[in-house]
User: Which sequence fits this backbone?
């Protein structure tokens, strides 16, 4: 029994063989008609429709993450400077108070 193969044609270019199907609209397209977006191959019309929709999918954590990273960076900088000051203070208490004074 011969193998049954179906060759899909591009939605925009009927002379070309389709290489993928758009997951949004389900149409078949050739290599020139698709674009990779977020690890998916989309056709131009679906990509335009996706670009028009607002990015409300980010959610609350996605909006708070940059602010949290800034606060963590400020805290880390404060901790480094506080630690350096404490180390210098500890070092200064073990050294003579004034090298110009005679005993």
Assistant:
């Amino acid at each position: 029994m011969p193998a049954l193969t179906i060759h899909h044609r591009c939605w925009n270019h009927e002379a070309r063989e389709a290489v993928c199907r758009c997951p949004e609209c389900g149409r078949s397209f050739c290599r020139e008609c698709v674009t990779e977006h977020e690890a998916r191959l989309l056709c131009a019309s679906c990509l335009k429709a996706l670009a028009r929709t607002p990015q409300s999918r980010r959610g609350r954590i996605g909006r708070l993450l940059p602010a949290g990273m800034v606060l963590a960076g400020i805290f880390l900088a404060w901790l480094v400077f506080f630690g350096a000051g404490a180390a210098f203070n500890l070092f200064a208490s073990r050294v003579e108070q004034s090298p110009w004074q005679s005993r």
Summary: The chain has two domains: 1-53, 56-94. The first strand starts at residue 20 and ends at 21. Residues 24 and 49 are 10 Å apart (CA to CA).
